[in-house]
Design brief:
The chain is α+β, with helices and mostly antiparallel strands. It has helices spanning 2-6, 14-48, 68-80, 115-135, 154-165, 177-181, 204-213, 263-266, 327-330, 361-364, 366-387, 436-449, and strands at residues 56-64, 86-90, 106-108, 140-141, 145-150, 171-173, 191-196, 200-202, 219-223, 227-231, 240-244, 249-257, 276-286, 304-307, 332-335, 343-347, 352-354, 397-406, 412-416, 419-426. Strands 1, 2, 9, 10, 11, 12, 19 and 20 form an 8-stranded mixed β-sheet that branches.
């Protein structure tokens, strides 16, 4: 429907943009319904195997949340021992579109100014390749990646320094050189791009569904139920029990909380007070101009890209930041066309904030959500006129996705400070998808070794202990 509607249209009108948003939403709902129907029999039959006495689900480890982190954690735990009984609890269906783990594409890259993230990405690449082999489908696709920005930008220079130190292959492309290699882009004087050939598009929803399909028999799954409460936390002589929304109890030796945005409401109930902020981000899809005689804008021809330019959108969270220069650090990101029509572009960390994902802005405050969407689209129009000479400046349609960010925009992966039987992973801050397999392995290691991430120089960056005062108001520092 989207392709037929946009065929031959150089620039969709405001009315057609609204219509496309509606159709896109309807298609997503149909896909979710279809997925649920296809999965129901398998999920039900496997959930029965984890039952103990009436109304009791017993397991060695219960993983709460079946998105990116949860499903890879379940896979990693199940590989440690075939006798290890793992229960994966997901409140929706596999591959749902209510959180942060869905979509036609996510960015995979090594280009970071921080060593620990490069190391984690290299480990994750091995896991993605393993999943591709087991699932029998290609999940990492594309033509590399670009980081684009002012030549003397501290972030660009820090990235170049770290890539060289870590011996990650890359090349610097100046104006003229970039256009010769990738004519979809256009640089101005004083700007450069860093090309990294191993960057890729991760096919997000297909990857999550592939991970679910490869879950072994010692992983039982519970879908369509929520965890309402946990008991026994910080009481070492008491068993850990989770009350499910259907009235049953899940009794587990250890627990992994990988609930995405729902960690904001779940963690305080078990005594963990981490400064987390949720935002409902807006992403837009732009069609190439009619008659553009250059290589295409699909993942077969065009790399992923991260433009490091100030999007000039000051959110309510940035207004709380005393430095008032956070926006310049976030910039934009984008992907070539994957499955949905159009090049996907977004202004990083510009969504309206929320503290409860069940009361996200598009639901409880649609006016604020629409106003922010308009502000973002204006910023994207400026970026397109600057960097993308062959794209229309008005979007085909827009979508929402959720970010859950920590105060410093680093990951939070650690054991509960007062109960080492519980591991948590949250605050992936809008850049966590690429690391899924490696994060799952790290959490499984925490559970089995009972050692905090703060105990290793390689993982201390992710420790809860970096937030010494949980009552401190969140601030955006990157």
């Amino acid at each position: 429907i989207l392709e037929l509607w946009t065929a031959g249209r150089e620039r969709p009108s405001a009315g057609s943009t609204f219509f496309l948003d509606f159709i896109s939403s309807m298609i997503r709902g149909l896909r979710s319904h279809r997925t649920h129907i296809l999965r129901t029999g398998a999920v039900f039959s496997r959930s029965l195997s984890s039952k103990g006495s009436e109304g009791i689900v017993e397991c060695d480890t219960c993983v709460v949340g079946g998105g990116l982190v949860g499903v890879f954690t379940a896979l990693s735990l199940s590989r440690q021992s075939k006798s290890n009984r793992v229960t994966l609890v997901e409140q929706f269906e596999p591959g749902h579109e209510n959180g942060s783990s869905h979509g036609d594409g996510r960015i995979f890259r090594y280009a970071y100014p921080v060593k620990e993230y490069i190391d984690l990405a290299q480990k994750a690449r091995v896991g993605w390749c393993d999943l591709e082999e087991k699932a029998g489908e290609k999940l990492l696709v594309g033509e590399g990646g670009l980081d684009i920005g002012p030549q003397h930008s501290p972030r660009i220079q820090a990235m170049l320094k770290m890539l060289s130190a870590q011996q990650v292959p890359h090349e610097v492309l100046a104006p003229g050189q970039l256009e010769a290699k990738f004519p979809q882009f256009s640089l101005r004087k004083g700007e450069i791009s860093i090309y990294q050939k191993d960057a890729a598009v991760t096919r997000a929803t297909p990857a999550i569904k592939a991970a679910w399909r490869t879950l072994p028999e010692n992983v039982s799954v519970e879908t369509g139920v929520r965890v309402e409460s946990m008991t026994g936390v910080s009481e070492k002589l008491q068993p850990l029990e989770l009350k499910l929304s259907d009235g049953r109890i899940c009794r587990a030796g250890t627990i992994v909380v990988a609930a995405g945005a729902w960690a904001m409401t779940m963690l305080p109930k078990i005594g963990i007070h981490i400064p987390l902020i949720g935002t409902e981000e807006c992403v837009a899809y732009f069609h190439p101009k009619k008659g553009a005689h250059i290589p295409g804008h699909t993942y077969r021809d065009m790399p992923i890209f991260i433009p490091h330019f100030d999007h000039k959108i000051v959110t309510e969270l940035m207004q709380k930041d005393l430095s008032h220069d956070s926006a310049a650090n976030w910039g934009y990101y984008g992907l070539p066309e994957v499955e949905l029509p159009g090049v996907k572009i977004a202004a990083h960390h510009t969504g309206v904030s929320f503290t409860d994902p069940d009361k996200r802005p598009s639901i409880v405050n649609p006016h604020a959500s629409q106003n922010r969407r308009d502000e973002i689209l204006n910023s994207l129009e400026v970026l397109i006129s600057h960097l993308f000479p062959h794209l229309e400046r008005k979007p085909l349609f827009t979508q929402h996705c959720l970010y859950t960010s920590s105060a410093d925009h680093g990951f939070v992966i650690d054991l509960h400070p007062k109960d080492s039987r519980i591991a948590i992973a949250c605050g992936l801050s809008g850049h966590g998808f690429k690391f899924g397999p490696a994060i799952g392995d790290l959490i499984a290691s925490l559970i089995t070794t009972q050692r905090s991430t703060k105990d290793s120089d390689d993982t201390a960056l992710f420790s809860i202990s970096r937030f010494p005062d949980p009552s401190e108001e969140p601030r955006l520092n990157h």
